[in-house]
Amino acid sequence: MFFGGRLLGVIVIVVEWINYIQAAKRVRAAARAEGQHWPFTRDGTILIRFVYMPNSLLDQTDGTKTRAAKLDLLRLRKRMWKVIGLGVGLLALGFCAAVVGEILKQGAS
Questions:
Q1: Which residue, 61, 10, 6, is CA-closest to 35?
Q2: What CA–CA distance (Å, rounded) separates 93 from 97?
Q3: Which residue pairs from 2-10 have beta carbons closer than 8 angstroms and sit at least 24 positions apart in sequence?
Q4: What torsion do the CA atoms of 70, 71, 77, 81 make, to the nearest 10 degrees?
Q5: Which value, to the nearest 10 degrees, does the dihedral of the CA atoms of residues 46, 52, 53, 57 take?
Q6: Which of 15, 19, 31, 74 has the greatest count of CB atoms below 10 A from its CB?
Q7: Which SS3 state, helix, strand or coil, does residue 36 take?
Q8: pLDDT tens per residue, range 48-86
Q9: Measuring CA to CA, how many Å separate 86 from each of 4, 14, 91, 102?
Q10: Can you tell me the distance from the alpha carbon of 76 to that of 82, in angstroms, rounded to the nearest whole number?
């Protein structure tokens, strides 16, 4: 069960990162089509802003396709935090279940 949970966690992380990479490529392609440059994965300051100040990625000069692609990326970010919260909750639940199981095992012997 322990390794199954870890495997599930790795699968979720890989799927989420694939979604992020695809969303970043869509933003980059939309920006390029509108004559702009958006180096999301190549600029550390943009990545930091993505984590701590996500709405600062939206710019007044964004075209409609670029803004839609950025909003999709921000939607994925919001989902990421929900998945992280769920994962932390499951970890805590698993820890509590292990402690309770050990207490019950000690009480039965």
A1: 61
A2: 6
A3: 5/90, 5/94, 9/87
A4: 160
A5: 30
A6: 31
A7: coil
A8: 888 888 888 888 889 999 999 999 999 998 888 888 888
A9: 16, 16, 9, 24
A10: 10
